[in-house]
Amino acid sequence: xxxxxxxxxxxxxxxxxxxxxxxxxxxxxxxxxxxxxxxxxxxxxxxxxxxxxxxxxxxxxxxxxxxxxxxxxxxxxxxxxxxxxxxxxxxxxxxxxxxxxxxxxxxxxxxxxxxxxxxxxxxxxxxxxxxxxxxxxxxxxxxxxxxxxxxxxxxxxxxxxxxxxxxxxxxxxxxxxxxxxxxxxxxxxxxxxxxxxxxxxxxxxxxxxxxxxxxxxxxxxxxxxxxxxxxxxxxxxxxxxxxxxxxxxxxxxxxxxxxxxx
Length: 262
Prior knowledge:
Layout: E1 5-9, H1 13-24, E2 28-33, H2 37-46, E3 50-52, E4 63-66, H3 70-79, E5 87-90, E6 107-112, E7 128-132, H4 136-148, E8 152-155, H5 158-188, H6 197-210, H7 219-222, H8 225-234, H9 239-261
Parallel strand pairs: 1-2, 1-4, 2-3, 4-5, 5-6, 7-8
Antiparallel strand pairs: 6-7
């Protein structure tokens, strides 16, 4: 497996996880560029790299991974300065190759399908990496980077990747918000969220094993109006949660009513 000289534009959650993992996999990290001096300096130090707050990269760098917030991506790509022969790839799930300025011809996407949080070590083994490039050699380079981390590669254009990103919001972000809402209800009653650990684990395990559409339980799928009304009454002092409960309940009931009609 080829080991590359890699630099990063960005030092946030995704950049930090990728940077440290690639360094540990044997790649050389040349430079970490970020306006956030303290966190970026720390990341650079961990990966034996240089830190800079200017988007100027050394000639030794073969790949620049741009991992910045979506609203900054266009500006960073327009300002970046690099040597000829450098591949530039971003990690955004909902942007394609058209976000690059015309001056960047060796370009690609390296999107890890995972949730990243500070202080959480990510296991990249088997992790899906969504790859896109209009150059075969660059596609191969990005594939080698993903495989060096133990990841699995998938090739998608921007429209398919945007739909994937949308689905991921439901699967991850909305699900986590439901955990937060459940914790809020439990907290008000003096119930520890830890009591739900086995329930959460079995819910996820069953959805993966059998399919989520075949794993639904609860009063909504049973059309148990009596229990639903009691739950809504308990939420009378929390109008936001009451509205959320009613909306999700209605959505579940409609889904399974439609399914039963065939």
